[in-house]
Design a protein that fits this description.
Layout lengths: L3 H19 L13 H13 L8 H22 L5 H24 L13 H4 L10
Length: about 130
Amino acid sequence: MYDAVDEAILHDKAKLICDQFLSSPIPPKCRINIQSELSSTVIENVKLGMFNRSLFHDLTINIFPLILNYWKIFCERRHKYVPRTELNRFKHELVVQRRRMKNALKKGRSSKVRVTVSDFRGWSQGHISSRDFE
């Protein structure tokens, strides 16, 4: 099972979760979308020192289906495939735009340069960052 040190760590973690999400000092008091009865039950159990693996189980059961939908959307956007040809075209366009910007700054015409990086699918959806090309 758990020794005294592990129990103290678990109690601190449970208290921290309750303080930050279930009875937050910043309005709204309950920072997650759950029933107030569930929230007060968990807070009372933590205050009484009655915590085990099932302390947050009811909260998890209520929240997990909603989070799962957002997680699916996140994964689909995060791991979207960008073809190599499109990536190479994007890199080339970045180099060309940097050269235009550099030449325009040398000539003092920076206001006439228009950068349209967001036209590329990978860039606009956050799959490619500018640090990948530096």
